[in-house]
Hints:
The complex is a heterodimer. Chain A is mainly β. Chain A is 0% helix and 50% strand. In chain A, the strands form three sheets. In chain A, strands 2, 5, 6, 10, 11 and 12 form a six-stranded mixed sheet that branches. Chain A has a four-stranded antiparallel sheet with strand order 3-9-8-7, with no helix packed on it. By secondary structure, chain B is mostly beta strands. In chain B, 0% of the residues lie in helices and 51% in strands. Chain B is built from no helices and eleven strands. In chain B, strand 5 and strand 6 (54-57) form a beta hairpin. The radius of gyration of chain B is 13 Å and the shape is globular.
Amino acid sequence: AQTVTQSQPEMSVQEAETVTLSCTYDTSESDYYLFWYKQPPSRQMILVIRQEAYKQQNATENRFSVNFQKAAKSFSLKISDSQLGDAAMYFCAYRTDSFNAGNNRKLIWGLGTSLAVNP
Amino acid sequence: NAGVTQTPKFQVLKTGQSMTLQCAQDMNHEYMSWYRQDPGMGLRLIHYSVGAGITDQGEVPNGYNVSRSTTEDFPLRLLSAAPSQTSVYFCASSPTFYREHEQYFGPGTRLTVT
């Protein structure tokens, strides 16, 4: 079974600096998606960035980028020029892309990393 | 577009009471799902629906019922509330089952069962 592990329950960063959140996963599949979701105090889950496993190029969305290491099964999120509005829980998630997965296509979630941004 | 809306935002129930958490989306999405979020346990899928009239169980379906009579609405019913159902509940939707990774989440409902 697939698992997602976020080893840092809490992180903090100074405003305008860079922080990296870690995520590792375990799977025997070759086709899958990986995601980072942000959950601010409002509690609404917001998709930050996604990565298709077949793509070698790391995904980037403005100040957010990932370091996807498929062989190491690692998927870290880098936030550059951190802003106060980046303070939130960040969740890493995995989903198979296998057409045969049927009901097992659900998202598998890590437990989250709470990020504080200090002014 | 309002996106995904959930009502109520907060609810307190007594053990044994029943209630329905409402979820609606105005994006004509086929796929809708319900999650619960508990401290230290991440998000867990309760039920999901791949289209009107079709529902299926997720990881933790016991104690909950769902129906999908329209594309827009996907209510979650607690049949007889228990303290173990104290949680934050999220509804989500995506265009299709195979685009689940593009899910839009609602703002959540915080439920306390005493």
